[in-house]
Design brief:
Blueprint (H helix, E strand, L loop, with lengths): L3 H5 L19 H9 L3 E10 L5 E12 L3 E3 L5 H7 L2 H21 L5 E7 L7 H12 L7 E6 L8 H12 L3 E7 L6 H6 L4 E4 L1 H4 L6 H16 L3 E5 L4 H10 L3 E3 L7 E2 L3 H16 L5
Parallel strand pairs: 2-4, 4-5, 5-6, 6-7, 7-8, 8-9
Antiparallel strand pairs: 1-2, 1-9, 1-10, 2-3
Helix pairs in contact: 5-6
Bound molecules: ligand C2E and magnesium ion (MG) (3 copies).
The site of one magnesium ion (MG) has 5 residues, from strand 6.
């Protein structure tokens, strides 16, 4: 199995700018209780079109407002949720909430693609297709407006089930995105087997790519692949103007990252949108430096 990350032997750890939190781990029971007690909250991070600055969608990123520990980020509980099976309930909650939000925005005249991260462990049973279809229908969200972002997991038991489920979802016109492309978890094999319509270049290749030959090569190769396969390319981890300009020059379709916006609660989105529209003209002009 060839992995782009391994082939190129490249790994640049992403700069984490959020406040330093203690590395706790939480039990499956505690995570389950958090879902029941309403301690989870979805934040949304915009995806924008590099050529125009238009906002084309948002990605849902779950957070846990822990009553004692404060804001807990997914890296501290998704793995346990996956290993224990709690991920089924967690994804159900996140999806339901994201679709309700998508509907609210749509009624307010804001039609954006809503992306939800789905674990490979969610793709173990065929009923997931019906589950997603029914949830979208209940929320009056057309399939093409929902995007499922998938990252490969080592815990995957039977690789055939995900393949079948994803293919069925694609046939129903749901969007499929291969997340963290270029890292050990998103391989070329997957890209060939699954009908993705979006490829997200991992942030470790995007931030400061302009000064790193290897990263630039990964971005170029990923883009070439995506073009050939008819997929849109998103660069994630755009942290500064240099990253933004680099992706624009490289001909990448979409961008996501702290430079554009941090993941935010739904209530802040409209205000951000207003500010963004003011920022865009300067970002489409040649870089001031
Ligand atoms: P991901 O799907 O690849 O999401 C991107 C991660 O990068 C998010 O971290 C986001 O907050 C962060 N990020 C965004 N822009 C920047 C930037 O400019 N620089 C840097 N350094 N980071 C940036 P987060 O929210 O901690 O989520 C981590 C991972 O947890 C996600 O990676 C995703 O794989 C997983 N995850 C998040 N929400 C869910 C969920 O609801 N279900 C599942 N199964 N997984 C989730
Ligand atoms: Mg994602
Ligand atoms: Mg990613
Ligand atoms: Mg990730």
């Amino acid at each position: 199995r060839e992995r782009l990350g391994d082939l190129l032997g490249h790994w640049a750890p992403g700069r984490d700018t959020r406040p330093e939190t203690s590395r706790r781990s939480y039990s499956a029971n505690r995570i389950m209780a958090a879902i029941r007690n309403g301690e989870l909250v979805n934040h949304y991070q915009p995806k924008v079109e590099l050529a125009t600055g238009n906002v084309i969608g948002v990605e849902t990123l779950v957070r846990w407002r822990h009553p004692q520990d404060g804001m807990v980020y997914p890296d501290q509980f998704i793995a346990v949720a996956e290993a224990s099976g709690v991920i089924e309930r967690l994804t159900g909650w996140v999806l339901n909430e994201a679709l309700a939000q998508s509907r609210r925005w749509s009624l307010a005249g804001i039609d954006l693609r809503m992306a939800v991260n789905v674990s490979m462990n969610n793709l173990a049973s065929i009923s997931f297709t019906d589950f997603v279809t029914e949830e979208a229908q209940c929320a009056c969200v057309p399939p093409a407006r929902l995007v499922l972002e998938v990252t490969e997991s080592r815990l995957m038991r039977d690789p055939r089930a995900p393949l079948e489920i994803l293919t069925r979802l694609r046939l129903k016109r749901f969007g499929l995105s291969i997340d963290d492309f270029g890292t050990g978890h998103s391989s070329l094999r997957q890209l060939c087997d699954i009908p993705f319509d979006e490829l997200k270049i991992d942030k470790s290749f995007v931030h400061r790519a302009w000064e790193d030959e290897t990263s630039r090569a990964v971005v170029a190769v990923s883009q070439g692949l995506a073009r050939q396969l008819g997929m849109k390319v998103v660069g994630e981890g755009v942290e500064d103007r240099e990253d933004w300009d680099f992706l624009r020059c490289a001909g990448c379709d979409h961008a996501q990252g702290y430079f554009i916006a941090r993941p935010m609660p739904a209530e802040e989105f409209l205000a951000w949108l207003g500010e963004w529209r003011v920022r865009v003209p300067a970002l489409l002009a040649p870089s001031p430096s």
